[in-house]
Task: inverse folding
């Protein structure tokens, strides 16, 4: 564990040296949102250890020296600048040796639920005894915490544990006669009672999943530096297969992966799952090259994530595909784009841009040749969010009367954004929604707390991303993407209405004369995991990252499409339909992205029907 007093930065560093003498380093730093982040540029020479960790769009270089007993590591760390070297002031850092609880032969474990605002958050805590004192770890699957180390201090009657973060979470327990831990969890001004029951045989969750790619790898990977025409750069991984079954003239077909909403790394990592790493592995094993990249301002990519919207992210995806077209191993006439969730909204837009000759870079370069849409919206963003709000509440067991009250208020907030109402009118609508949500949850908020939550909620509704997403209608781009489409959704998806959106995608591609295949997978959620309810609270508890049957069919479609694509000169693009409302015939991402003019029709003040799946 590390302690930098001036920065109050908690860090757990796991250093391993394999039988091949290769050193690997993984870092947990909750304040930096680094959970088992792999280090790069690792060097271990004698007593000196150095490595670089990429977190939240920045790179940190640590350089330290082990003491003679190998019990402590001291050194300095600093931020890596554009030059690739540490720039600016460096900070002192010291770490002392400890144990990874998961590697102990035995430890005690307890499980229970923390009740917060009407929600139950399942968690487990484990403590082991060592010659260096007690060590602990916590699992909170719904928050992606898997085997996160705790600072454990024994007290006369039990334990005091700290989970470091932006605001430390403090767990204080007394041990009862039956072995239970009874006490509380405190984080900032929030305190809640918490009781954990003994869980004999419980194993702390590992930080890998069964589908995580394992060697030997029938492909090579290299770092990709993607220049964006607006000035920032994106960092990614380019995977080149050794399987040459799809090679033409010495070149591989390729796919760009585009992530869903929120700041995502190149693996689209969520709650211990790395779906893009799994997809890239599956495609590469079948002879398809893959490019996946960190979102702007995330991982090693530059630029600002905050203040960017879906159209900005579409220009990033466009730049990534242009990068592929310059790679010597890649067949630029057989490049596709795979998008998940919001990424599935972006892929048709980029294809429309490029196939109309209005892309961000060289118009002589080949355009995208196919797209794959995973849990993609065909509805306008406002409709997606209102439906999502209702279904998530139903999955949590909220009464139908409360659901309808919240959704009616949510529709009014969406309309306030669409109609560009004044800040005062928007705030009034958001307050009605917030009060309905608080009432539905059974929670209580005093006036100051309510106003604080309201301020944050209004700010999020005024965010550029929200304004664009709420108003954007994907149908026009789907009608005019001009390439083969494969779209699939999970029947239990609670974030994007699977049936309605597949219907809209099918209708739009049919209108555009575009060959398309749609597939609804029974029993799968938004991440294409086999699930019980589809609730996001299950994501972290499910070991499967991506259902094997769904993955195999999707990969099979890509392989078949890449094998059958004729040379570009022999292709006949479909005749473009009339422009749908709100989508002009040509929108160049190199111009002003806001020129897309998203649809602004108000939502009908009707309630979504109860889920029938």
Result:
């Amino acid at each position: 564990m590390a302690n930098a007093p001036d920065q109050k930065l908690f860090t757990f560093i796991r250093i391993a040296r394999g039988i091949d003498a290769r050193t690997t380093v993984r870092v947990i730093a909750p304040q930096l949102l680094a959970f088992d982040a792999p280090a790069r540029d690792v060097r271990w020479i004698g007593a000196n250890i150095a490595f670089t960790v990429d977190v939240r769009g920045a790179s940190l270089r640590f350089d330290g020296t082990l003491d003679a007993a190998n019990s402590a590591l001291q050194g300095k760390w600093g931020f890596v600048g554009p030059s690739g070297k540490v720039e600016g002031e460096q900070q002192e850092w010291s770490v002392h040796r400890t144990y990874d609880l998961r590697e102990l032969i035995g430890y005690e474990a307890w499980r229970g639920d923390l009740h917060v605002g009407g929600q139950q958050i399942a968690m487990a805590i484990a403590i082991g005894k060592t010659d260096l004192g007690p060590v602990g770890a916590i699992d909170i699957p719904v928050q992606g915490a898997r085997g996160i180390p705790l600072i454990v201090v024994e007290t006369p009657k039990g334990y005091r544990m700290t989970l470091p973060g932006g605001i430390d979470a403090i767990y204080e327990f007394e041990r009862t006669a039956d072995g239970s831990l009874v006490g509380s969890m405190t984080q900032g001004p929030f305190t809640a009672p918490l009781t954990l029951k003994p869980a004999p045989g419980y194993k702390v969750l590992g930080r890998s999943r069964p589908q995580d790619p394992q060697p030997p790898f029938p492909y090579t990977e290299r770092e990709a530096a993607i220049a964006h025409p607006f000035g920032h750069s994106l960092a990614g991984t380019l995977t080149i297969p050794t399987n040459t079954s799809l090679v033409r003239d010495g070149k591989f077909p390729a796919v760009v992966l585009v992530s869903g909403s929120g700041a995502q790394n190149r693996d689209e990592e969520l709650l211990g799952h790395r779906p893009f790493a799994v997809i890239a592995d599956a495609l590469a094993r079948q002879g398809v090259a893959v490019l996946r990249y960190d979102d702007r301002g995330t991982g090693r990519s530059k630029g600002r994530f905050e203040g960017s919207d879906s159209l900005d992210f579409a220009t990033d995806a466009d730049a990534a595909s242009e990068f592929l077209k310059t790679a010597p191993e890649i067949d630029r006439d057989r490049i596709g784009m795979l998008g998940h969730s919001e990424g599935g909204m972006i892929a048709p837009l980029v294809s429309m841009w490029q196939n109309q000759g209005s892309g961000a870079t060289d118009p002589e370069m080949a355009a995208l040749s196919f797209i794959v849409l995973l849990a993609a919206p065909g509805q306008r963003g406002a409709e997606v969010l209102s439906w999502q709000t209702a279904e998530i509440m139903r999955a949590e067991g909220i009464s139908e009367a409360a659901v309808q009250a919240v959704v009616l208020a949510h529709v009014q907030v969406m309309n306030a954004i669409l109609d560009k109402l004044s800040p005062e009118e928007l705030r009034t609508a958001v307050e009605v929604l917030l009060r309905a949500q608080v009432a539905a949850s059974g929670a209580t908020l005093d006036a100051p707390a309510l106003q604080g939550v309201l301020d944050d909620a209004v700010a999020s509704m005024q965010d550029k991303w929200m304004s664009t997403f709420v108003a954007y209608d994907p149908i026009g781009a789907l009608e005019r993407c001009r390439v083969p489409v494969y779209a699939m959704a999970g029947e239990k998806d609670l974030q994007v209405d699977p049936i309605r959106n597949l219907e809209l995608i099918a209708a739009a591609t049919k209108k555009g004369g575009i060959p398309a295949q749609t597939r609804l997978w029974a029993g799968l959620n938004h991440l294409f995991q086999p699930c019980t309810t589809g609730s996001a609270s299950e994501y972290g508890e499910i070991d499967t990252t991506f259902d094997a049957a769904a993955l195999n069919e999707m990969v099979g479609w890509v392989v078949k499409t890449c094998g059958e694509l004729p040379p570009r000169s022999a292709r006949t693009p479909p005749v473009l339909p009339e422009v749908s409302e709100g989508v002009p015939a040509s929108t160049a991402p190199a111009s002003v992205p806001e020129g897309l003019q998203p649809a602004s029709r108000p939502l009908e003040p009707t309630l979504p029907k109860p889920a029938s799946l």
In short: Confidence is low (pLDDT under 50) at residues 1-6, 360-364, 581-602, 604-613. The domain at 103-198 is CATH 2.40.128 (Lipocalin). The longest helix spans residues 400-418.
